[in-house]
Amino acid sequence: MQFASRLDNVETSAIRELFKLLGKPGIISFAGGFPDSAMFDVEGLKEASQKALTEEAGGALQYGATEGYEPLRNQLSSFMKTKGVDVDPSGLIVTTGSQQALDLLGKTMISPGDKVIVEGPTFLATIQCFRLYGAQLISAPIDANGVKTDELEKLIAEHKPKFVYLIPTFGNPSGAMLSLERRKKVLELAVKYQTLIVEDDPYGDLYFGEAPPPSIMSLSKDVPGSRELLAHCGSLSKVLSPGLRIGWMIAPPELLAKATMCKQFSDAHTSTFAQATAAQYLKSGRMPGTLAHVREVYGQRAQAMGAALKRELGGAVSFTQPNGGLFFWARLTGANGKLADANELAKRAIEKLVAFVPGAPFFAEKPDVATLRLSFATADIEKIEEGVKRLGQAL
Ligand code: PMP
Q1: How far apart are CA 63 and CA 75, in angstroms?
Q2: Which of 76, 109, 230, 385 is the most buried (most CB within 10 A)?
């Protein structure tokens, strides 16, 4: 079949093949990007969906506005206020997962050949999505404090990108957290170079100890002229339920209008039933309790994984203990003649019945084959310890 040429730039994900092996009996998987289904607040969501059907069936089951269901836009506006972002309900649109917000950004902003700066490494689906629209992706290096803003400035000055895409808080896959100082610097760069910055923030609420610095969107109130150059994507997926498919995007009015137009031709609107349920849930006041619960459980798992990695793999891997999110990002050091190729290790690990994702596909440029991503979200502490032990054996 003769497919559209836009598909020429995109391959099916290299890690898909690996996922096929995850069904092996007895396997312990650190490979997925899923939250743990056992954490879903099923009772709260039952009540919320019931209320949606009894109190507002006409809205919850009917076609709705492309921008989003009004009660949910109101709730999301209040939710963002608790996180220091002042946004009118009309200043955000509801999207079908934050993934759709990324797609809409691609659709509205990227013409074939346009340059977009992303972090190296970054979220794989973003790489694929932006490439589908013909973007030439430029990779900005990161460390444990997020994107290196000095390097970022050089790249912005050189490439004049259409926009810069960042996951500042507990990046996927990096787990890195952009420091407050660098967040401010990013805002200065936006203004200095008049460059749109996209802040993708599905993990910001998922912190384990101290809260992370305020989002870039929240800090924009201190940097005149920066708010007009910012888009912010949020999601209920990681803290409440990814199956609800509720995300949102805050952006300048002009961009929001174009994105809404594109969404109209794509899915008309996000499921009104899911939106009404999410709105009822946020209204119910259960969210703070849910957040406290997921922070605690994932925090314990992250601790357990960090300790196990140190114990079982010692100097063979380097990593920074993440303070939130779902992932460890590690690098094989090759010390003492140990393996330094994560692809090879992934194959051996599957034989030992443990799985993780090699890091190379997360780089838009210059892949680092020594890197790997380990999710601590879905295995309990016992499985985490056993899985890391197997990983040590594989190594
Ligand atoms: N952005 C990042 C960085 C992610 O890790 C994910 C989910 N893995 C998404 C966006 C999309 O999430 P959702 O569409 O479920 O909101």
Answers
A1: 20
A2: 76
pLDDT digits (tens, 9 = 90+) for 60-75: 999 999 999 999 999 9
Q: Which residues, in sequence order, are CB contacts of 40 under 8 Å at separation 6+?
A: 240, 241
Distances (CA, A) of 208 to 33, 130, 182, 238: 18, 31, 21, 14
**Single-letter amino acid code for the residue at 88:** D
Cα–Cα dist 309/220, whole Å: 38
- Extract the tokens encoding 372: 């790997």
Residue nearest to atom 8 of ligand 1 (CA): 33
Residue 144: Cβ-neighbour burial (10 angstroms; 0-12, 13-18, 19+): middle
* Count, residues in the chain: 395
Burial of residue 25 (number of CB atoms within 10 Å: 0-12, 13-18, 19+) = exposed
- The span from the CA of 346 to the CA of 356, in Å, is 7
pLDDT tens, residue by residue, 313-347: 989 999 999 999 999 999 999 988 888 999 999 99
Atom of ligand 1 nearest to the CA of 247: 16
19, 103, 123, 130, best to mutate for ligand 1 pocket (most atoms within 8 Å of CB): 123
Average pLDDT, the chain: 96
Strand pairing of 246-250 and 354-355?
unpaired
Query: Which atom in ligand 1 lies closest to the alpha carbon of residue 100?
Result: 14
Residue list, ligand 1 pocket, CB within 6 Å: 33, 97-99, 123, 167, 172, 200, 202, 235, 237, 242, 247
The tokens of 26 are what? 């007895």
* Interface predicted TM-score (ipTM): 0.99
CA of 13 to the centre of ligand 1 (A): 15
Best of 237, 240, 329 to mutate for ligand 1, by most ligand atoms within 8 A of CB? 237
Average pLDDT over residues 86-111: 98
Ligand 1 centroid distance, CA of 303 (Å): 23
